Amino acid sequence: MVDKTDFYSRLNIGTGASEEAIKKAYRLAVRKAHPDVNKNVGATQLFLDIQEAYKILSDPGRKGAYDDGREPRDISSEILTATEFSQAGLLRMEEPQVIYSLLDIVSVKDEEQQSADLPLNIALVLDNSTSMKGKRLDFLRAATKEIINDLGEEDLISIISFNDRAKVLLPSQTKPSPVQLESALSDLFAEGGTEMFQGLEAGYEEIRKTPPLNYVNHIIMITDGHTYGDEENCIALANTAADQDIGISGLGIGIEWNDEFLDQLCALTGGQSLFIQDLEKVHHFLEHSIVSLKEAFSRRLTLQIIPAPGVKMLSAFRILPESLPLPHQEDFSLGILKKHQPHRVLFEFLVDPIPKKISQAVIASGEYLVKKKIRDRVIPFTLDRPVIPQSKDIEPPDKEIFKAISHLTFYRLQEKAQQDIASGHPGTAYQRLLNLSSHLMAKGEDSLAKIAMNEADYIKTHNNFSPTGKKELKYGTIRLMLPDKT
Amino acid sequence: MIKCKVCNNEEYQGVLFCAECGSQIAFVSEKRVNTLVYPTQIRGVNVDFTQTIPKKLMEESTFILYSTEREQVIDLPDQEEFTIGRIVEGQVITPDVDLNIYEAYDMGVSRLHATIRINREKNLFFVIDLGSANGSSVNGYEIPANSEVPLNHGDVLTLGKFNMKVILPQDMK
Known about the structure:
The complex is a heterodimer.
Chain A: H1 7-10, H2 19-33, H3 43-57, H4 60-69, E1 79-85, E2 90-92, E3 97-107, H5 109-114, E4 120-127, H6 135-149, E5 156-162, E6 166-174, H7 178-185, H8 196-208, E7 216-223, H9 231-243, E8 246-253, H10 259-269, E9 273-276, H11 281-294, E10 300-307, E11 311-320, E12 324-325, E13 331-333, E14 343-351, E15 360-371, E16 377-389, H12 399-422, H13 426-442, H14 446-462, H15 469-479
Parallel strand pairs in A: 2-16, 4-5, 4-7, 7-8, 8-9
Antiparallel strand pairs in A: 1-3, 3-14, 5-6, 10-13, 10-15, 11-12, 11-14, 15-16
Chain B: E1 2-3, E2 10-11, H1 39-43, H2 55-60, E3 64-67, E4 72-73, E5 81-85, E6 97-98, E7 112-119, E8 124-129, E9 136-138, E10 141-142, E11 148-150, E12 156-159, E13 162-167
């Protein structure tokens, strides 16, 4: 139960909450407790309590005085969670309903200042199968050199090449000298097939040479091909890696690589998978990966979410810091938690009719596990909503969640078009992509709209996606979710 | 369950966008907000066909059907409700709008194919398929027979295989 005498818990926030967060929490709390909505006994008092708390906390002077008089800080409140729902309440009705929830977790400043930056432990796993010959490997070499310049003194790096077998070009060590690096990369030439497991395992072993506890550990794999027959081993390794706080991110070059497999592999560890056509962007991808790992506040963030009885979780989609559809399960590896930046997941729940006597219904509960340098932190949360009469005018959802759901719809449409093709209905896929294109156009996403339209036209004549179109659409719609689409 | 006004797909209460066609289904006014953009606009061949429609017609009418393939405005009566089809000899009930001049038979238009209903007061427009042999669709989605389906500016109404674009002049201002 919340401590009713504490102004912070009245608003359901931590002591480190910013002015903005206080305002937001207040609005949320008021909406929940407003006597018009909440008919529970004592609701009016609750409403007044919230008003009182906000009056103090929103005034910097009075807030300071209040803070000084408070008991020592509860440190666990300095990582905050916030939720937004697609509807202010669940409807009192006889049939199931869907509700979306946007769940944020963010570390606040005070806590960050106490913790030093975590150094990186990176394994670069590079595909050097025959198909990488020429330009692709040249770009890879150049990009590798550049990002190694970005490493800090404590950071660890290893470089592994793989085809049918793996070769450790640079064993795990601190920033190599230019000569060392040159000599390591001179061993990078194209031959043989693609067996991802070989490369991943070698990368994993290199990282494991140093205890992972004090590092942000990550395998970055770059590939252009399909792996054959070792998918299961790769998945098993990804699971093991995740358990030891080692993330995996993958970059696919060209059109042949297996996007579904790489997505799955990376999602298991909370990493990111990306597709590029333009070789010059290899460098951007690597740089972006390193920079974003450097912003880590925690080694790893996991989320366990358990839907309440009568509630089914339909889907989960990570939106920040990198967008990625999450595998269908109740335990998620979410990668790292960055400093200042919220980690955001969009959930879709199907809720059965709610029993008459319940006025505040729990949708799901769960906890975040934030793994940090010194000790781990567990942040529990509950997703619940008041039950409101169906007849009432329902307010449309806030802009943020509305946008997230709209983008999720785009992703789903291209996914459905893929299923249409797979099940032999190119006509339906055609129509679906026309619609997708239309909606994208209406949202001002002209270039992606054009891609969708071209794909629709291609499907009309070829009854299948164009070689690049499928991936372009998929990663294009995923990228839409990011506020900054670079 | 709630029904998508564009493609009739059913979704759970609380869903915001139709999973089948992507149209927004919740928190939209009775009229849909985002009508589908016509493909040519996206393909980059931006044909402004409204230029070919007589100005007078654009100023005076509330509802225009335009055949994009023929680049012609279809002649409609000034009524709140009218039927569309094709006239054959000896037919007892004839449609108000005869599409014979557009090779309606080859296009699979039935004799009494659909009704257009106009509510001028509320500025609402509907099509009702009258149980035609080859069906009707709006923006490529088949519509059920004998039920009102709203029409919006920019929609493509298809009777059999005959395409018409819905133009609502007051929505263009």
